[in-house]
User: Fold DUF1059 domain-containing protein from Spirosoma sordidisoli.
Amino acid sequence: MKTLNCRDAGFDCNAQIHAETDEEILAQAAEHASSVHGVTVTPELAEGLKSLIHEEA
Assistant:
């Protein structure tokens, strides 16, 4: 299982996204960023987010 912490992306937010693949994480992150933070995830931003995705222990 993979995880992305919203706080790691620079937001004051405790949301965590969990999914099996990077693509699923990025899709959920884009929805979260738009609905909660009013941010559109661009391809450049998505590329940067990939480095913040980590495997759960």
User: Anything to note?
Assistant: The two ends are 9 Å apart (CA to CA). The chain has one domain: 2-55.
